[in-house]
Amino acid sequence: MEPPLRIGAVGLGRGFMLMLPTFRADPRVQLVAVADPRPEARARFVAEFGGRAYADVAALAADPEVDAVYVATPHQMHAEHVLAAAAAGKHVLVEKPMAVALADAERMVDACRAAGVHLIVGHSHSFDAPIAVTRAMIAGGTYGPLRMMTALNFTDFVYRPRRIEELDSAEGGGVLFSQGAHQVDIVRLLAGGMAQTVRAIVGDWDDSRRTEGAYAALITFAGGITASLTYSGYGHFDTDEFCGWSGETGSPRDPDEYGLARRRLAAAADPAAEVRLKETRAYGAGAAGPGAGAEPKLHEHFGLLLASCGKADLRPLPTGVMIYGDRERALHPLPAPAVPRAEVVDELYAAVVHGTPPVHSGAWGLATLEVCTAMLRSAREGREIALERQVPVAGAG
To answer: How distant, in Å, are the alpha carbons of 45, 63, 82, 117, 161 from that of 56?
Structure first.
């Protein structure tokens, strides 16, 4: 086996915490350096991993021991940090959404192409193994052509602790950038990537949390495929109920904790207290992170998804893919993942080590961002928006 990819992580907040179990468990990657403005986070990293910790991104990008940079900083900082990594000749894995503005995303794609480095956008839930199996089932043709997709997710997203900019869509806040990227990525992957138009409405329903907290959208694709997307982050119904109370990251949920996010938020007396509450979930603040010493988890998911084909409906689940055929229904089971989010490393490792074109490339992330920004524009202008930057799934056909 080739030596592990040496990873330098930028930003040790919540996104990093969700990828940390992967970095700990997957032998194909080694976390060797981090950059974060918080001295307590840097000190903890050195104590735990024995690597190098920097206060700024440029210093990490210049580290000759780093092969690839993982960018998990706030959304509005992604472009600056990806450009710094590309300028230093580093491959990049950047969290979704890849940027807030399409122009910034285009600069990121161009910079990485000019530097001859790979740019991969993720984690999004289109990496999840049950989605990959569903995609293979559609491509195999056994169940007929894909006709329609229905995606539905209800969460408490709006009431999780936030920094001020996380409630401002101009800074990449609200559900369209953080959550819409997951749903859009999934349906684009299953439909082949080539979205054509989008018509959407958004909801901003809580005067105390002024942000886009919900949306409904209809996306058309080449070949006559359609996808309807619905998302609400207002903390009432929870679609984990449809998934056997397995949470988004594959860990078990307790339905008796209904309303917990609202109760925790109510204990924060002001915005500064809310920020402090959010920081308790960051690396170096005492949080162990998901997967640290926990029991094996099921696969991750993003609510309810149905892919309607000519001869069956396919439903990805945390345990596999449910097939609702003409005369019977059956579960195509999947074993629990040995390494959480190993599919992200699959794609990064194959691209960097073997030169395999990644599915979730910079161009792919740009196309997903185009749909998300078009959803906002459609809601604002009250009309259907034509899409211009779409790309097919790498290797399809």
So the answer is: 15, 12, 13, 21, 25
Per-residue pLDDT tens over the stretch 368-377: 999 999 999 9
What lies within 8 Å, CB to CB, of 57 at 6+ separation is: 10, 35, 80, 81, 84, 85
Q: What is the CA radius of gyration of the chain?
A: 20
Q: CA distances (Å), 354 to each of 92, 110, 227, 350, 387, in order?
A: 15, 22, 34, 5, 32
Q: What angle do CA 195, 365, 158 make, to 5 degrees?
A: 90
C-alpha dihedral (156, 160, 166, 167), degrees to nearest 10 = 60
Query: What is the three-class DSSP state of 332?
Result: strand
Q: Rounded to two decimals, what is the model's pTM?
A: 0.95
DSSP 26: -
Separation in Å, CA 17 to CA 22, 175, 285, 347, 371: 10, 20, 11, 20, 27
Phi and psi at residue 394, to the nearest 5°: -60, 130
CA distances from residue 336 to 86, 218, 296, 319 in whole angstroms, order as listed: 35, 33, 7, 7
Tell me how far CA of residue 118 lies from CA of 41, 59, 68, 98, 345, in angstroms.
Answer: 28, 20, 9, 14, 13
- Go through 184-221 and write b for each residue having 16 or more CB atoms within 10 A of its CB, e for each that does not: bbbbbbbbbbbbbbbbbebbeeeeebebbbbbbbebbb
**What tens digit of pLDDT does each residue of 352-397 get?**
999 999 999 999 999 999 999 999 999 999 999 999 999 999 876 5
Beta bridge partners of 221: 195
Which residue blocks in the chain are alpha helix, DSSP H?
Answer: 14-25, 39-49, 57-61, 78-87, 102-115, 129-140, 175-178, 180-191, 260-266, 271-279, 342-354, 362-381
> What's the distance, Cα to Cα, between the start and end of the chain in Å?
30
